[in-house]
Amino acid sequence: MATTPEHVDVLIVGAGLSGIDAAYHLQRAFPGRTYALLEMRDASGGTWDLFRYPGVRSDSDMFTLGYRFRPWLGEKAIADGDSILAYVRDTATENGIDQHIRYRHKVVRAEWSSARNRWTVTADHDGETVTMTTNFLFSCSGYYRYDEGYTPDFAGTERFPGPMIHPQHWPGHVDVEGKRVIIIGSGATAVTLGPALVEQGAHVTMLQRSPSYIIPRPAYDGFADRARKFLPARAAYALARAKNVALSTLMYQLSQRYPKRMRIWIRSWQEHWLPEGYDLDTHFNPGYEPWDQRLCLAPDGDLFLAIRRDELHLVTDRIETFTETGLRLESGRELGADLIITATGLNLIPFGGVELVVDERKIHLPDTMVYKAMMLSEVPNFAFVFGYINASWTLKADLVCEYVVRLLRHMDAEGYAKAMPVRDPSVGAAPFFDFEPGYVLRSLDILPKRGDRAPWQLHMNYLRDLPTLRYGRITDSAMRFERA
């Protein structure tokens, strides 16, 4: 005998940083509305529960990565992964959100019915199919595959007898003391891992195909520490948050407008931290302009100090093949290794790979266009969080959650059951991102498009999004509303 699927007013996919944020805003605004979070893993926290490699930390300050509604009270502005995970879970526990999480529920399909004005969502739960219905579907599942990191097809990997580890799948404790460790990569993960493994006694070589921009930054925020002495916690947090938003926005805008000058400034900071005569032209001279890819942070200059102490070596070259003793590079140089870490990136997957269907029509994401960078054209009652790449993820998550609350309030007030952005055919289309990291370039053909005019544009600018998403009108020529 068929049973009626469980129904909730709002269904959130993902119980990480964004999902907890969404749940808080929803239950605060609508205490009588039902909701649930479906989490594919067996624990909350998302990225901060998944990544367990040595030294894992934020690459953004916690005064902007933290929630707007809950002050970050930790000592460090650049915090370690365990502290961030505790912050996210404490937020869920204090607000009763953890009671609404359904673990080991991987959403695989969501079907919208205009006749019923609701979604039917199918999830896999420990091998069994679970079906739920909802009026509004909110995707907070991040942007990359949790079950698979990206590793290029290196030649000769079968010849190397030692362990090869991708940081996304760190196997618990790994003894590296006294061992030769090669980290392949030049992004934030490699920049984090290198100094952390040095601290554990490893002899570290960081092998990069091409350099990245790496800048030193204090792990502690002196301004925030002083503000805490004179102001209540919330006021000090808000002030530090505003200061850091302004500084990060300024740095990004300067990088976009005056890239040559920013390149010179970054080089001068690096020269201050590195040994005299260090070959910056080879190892710290990227082939792209600042902020064409995300800048990497070295808290308290840890990477530069490890280089200065001759404990970490940078090699800029390409891999010809793995060997029985390590790697042979295209230059002919041989690198010996006991352990090789492939910090080579992520596999991007939109909305956790959920198949979206609207009135029996399967949605092909590249045919859709993003509305205010948080909804999809011709997809009703659906929103998603995709945070900033050039700033803290949570800044955008907070704005999207606030907008969804305002949208639902408007629908309640007017008696609407359906809200759907409809694309004007005259709006020109462009790739989702104007950004150059490898994981983005590899995935442009599976992503929605952005438009050439509002409200279809995608801004990587918090101060530009703030008036639109927090205070702007809900109604416009692109949004269609229907009553039940």
UniProtKB/TrEMBL annotation:
Gene Ontology molecular-function annotations: flavin adenine dinucleotide binding; N,N-dimethylaniline monooxygenase activity; NADP binding
Cofactor needs: FAD
Entry-linked InterPro entries: FAD-binding_MO (IPR051820), FAD/NAD-bd_sf (IPR036188), Flavin_mOase-like (IPR020946)
Pfam families assigned to the protein according to its UniProt record, in alphabetical order: FMO-like, NAD_binding_8
Keywords assigned by UniProt, alphabetized: FAD, Flavoprotein, Monooxygenase, NADP, Oxidoreductase
Top-level taxon of the source organism: Bacteria
Membrane-traversing stretches: none
Family: Belongs to the FAD-binding monooxygenase family.
Name recorded for this polypeptide: NAD(P)-binding protein
